[in-house]
């Protein structure tokens, strides 16, 4: 099992960190009392859980003091334990609470926000040196997400960006979820061959027809090169999914063929999905 523990000050970005873990396939638990962590790990291990992310912070109450001993125990029982402590300057935390208008978990009618933050620092002081300490004061959310992935998620399977190739027919409209759209209507259309018309780009006769045309290969190579060149930038941007839409007139032949072909080309670089949006509509 890979166990990722997230702790830190309220408003420092723990929710962002936990969301990154959840997107990467971790079983995530927020606001778990620290004393229950060993039982949770034991139970989920028996159930075959491979990746567990848990947020433990000042909301755990008095049990937060037991975290150092519990962590030391777990390091001897769990194959991979990672502890991440998120921090931020007081002025940054105050600004964030003011922007979101959320109440600090320690604040009440008798204590101000800055006093609540100071008290929380004191309660969590023993946790800050237990693992990787990140000051999020000047980090944009996307930057923090990237740091969490680099620090915690990098060895998890199926993490990172999922690349979706989606064929569609322009006569049904451009899919609104597309990040990139390529128009391949300029290529020869198998629709005008009566024998090929009822088939799709998944059928061998259509594939053979298209692969005899040099322009089809040139189009596929150009799209592959363009997507390949810019894909790392979208990974750095923190995308979980990126959709490349390939459109022909009806979404039956050319776009289907190219979506399948491109998916094969990128299969070794990242997690790849293929969807044919209009194939059944024709």
TrEMBL record:
InterPro entries: P-loop_NTPase, RapZ-like, RapZ-like_N, RapZ_C. This is RNase adapter RapZ. It comes from Uliginosibacterium sediminicola. PANTHER family: RNASE ADAPTER PROTEIN RAPZ. Keywords: ATP-binding, GTP-binding, Nucleotide-binding. Residues 162-279 form the RapZ C-terminal domain. Residues 1-151 form the RapZ-like N-terminal domain. ATP binds at residues 8-15. It holds the Pfam family RapZ-like_N. GTP binds at residues 57-60. HAMAP family: RapZ_like (MF_00636).
